[in-house]
Amino acid sequence: MNNEPEYTAAIVGCGRIGYSLALDKKREQPASHTSALNLNPRIKLVAGCDTNADALDVWKKANPQAETFASSEQLYQNKVPDIVVIAVDEKNHLEESLLAMEAHPRLIILEKPVATNMKSAMKILDAGRDKNIPVLVNHERRFSNDYILAKQCMEKIGNLQSIRASLMSGMAVYNPREEESGAYSLLHDGTHLADAVLFFLENDSLSGLVQSGEREKGLLWKALHLKSGKWHNSLLHNPTVSGVMRDENRCVRQMSAHYSTDACPDVSLFVSGRSKYFGFEIEITGTLGRITVGNGIFNVETREESSLYTGFYSLKKNDDIKAPKKTGYFSNMVQNAVDFLDGKEKLRSSLQSGINALAVMEEIKDCLSKA
Questions:
Q1: Phi and psi at residue 129, to the nearest 5°
Q2: Taking all residues of the chain, what is their mean pLDDT, rounded to a whole number?
Q3: What are phi and psi of 43, to 5 degrees?
Q4: DSSP per-residue string spanning 146-182
Q5: Closest by alpha carbon to 83, among 37, 50, 16?
Q6: CA-CA distance, 103 to 320, in Å (whole number)?
Q7: Which is nearest to 266 in space by CA: 159, 356, 187?
Q8: Is the pLDDT of residue 116 over 90?
Q9: Smallest Cα–Cα separation from 151: which of 193, 111, 200?
Q10: Fewer CB atoms near the end CB (10 Å): N or C, the chain?
Q11: pTM (2 decimals)?
């Protein structure tokens, strides 16, 4: 007989990432919090809430076993779930995170980005510490089988020479008029890009960041530093920003941020808001090979004797390393939550790692604001 406990869960925000992406037939499923929670046998989805009555009605029809509420306040007055998922717009992350912490769940799953700015993110961090409530941030590539395999393969490509990360979309890279909403790609998908690069740069021992002078609170906390009143990420810090293009409304439509780190001497983040397609790709080049991973892309090339030139070596696709058939990004995230509550695993994408990625993007934004 299986004596493993069942964990209850509630979703705050039953819209796109909360529910409706499960209806996209082209996406790998599960692709929403609702579907991923429902597919895990250790989780019972007991409630959902949304201020949009139409969205809530659609969600209820798909989840008749769960109760529905028009606000998170109503939810917490009636339910105390083990897991609270916050899947609302980023401008509401701070408010909803603090409300959820008042209900004392055992775990909060927070959609990326952590918040629209570092000031709000640090309030969430402080509240979580005060109430001893852990937060898992859904930076999905830390759970994705292809990215996990790519990191494992880094030992095959020798010493790192460069990392090139690119994000292509039609959304403005930075729009100063959307500071409150966070509706620009540096935040919307940009923290995914920064977090994925940090994932590859981090030591496996890096699991948790310390403001200078404070006692140690974990190695990831050590990667975050307060300087001149601003938080900076020491793994990716002090970028050289170039290639900036703005539209007629002064919104940034293209930019590159360049870094030199101890782990890799040449790291660049390229973000475009001029593209007529969506793309997300990271190329990692070493002294013995190259790894390319991204949306629908996985390739590992290693050094072999050249078939083109005598006495030379070339890169050739390593056919022994196959791309995973499914990335499992959403189901792996939910399973990590279960394993964490069981005491078997640490959180693979913690609140601290999410804040680290936000710090990278906020520093880039500050550079763009001054330009």
A1: -70, -40
A2: 92
A3: -120, 135
A4: HHHHHHHGGGGG-SEEEEEEEEE-SS-SB-GGGTTTT
A5: 37
A6: 49
A7: 159
A8: yes
A9: 200
A10: N
A11: 0.92
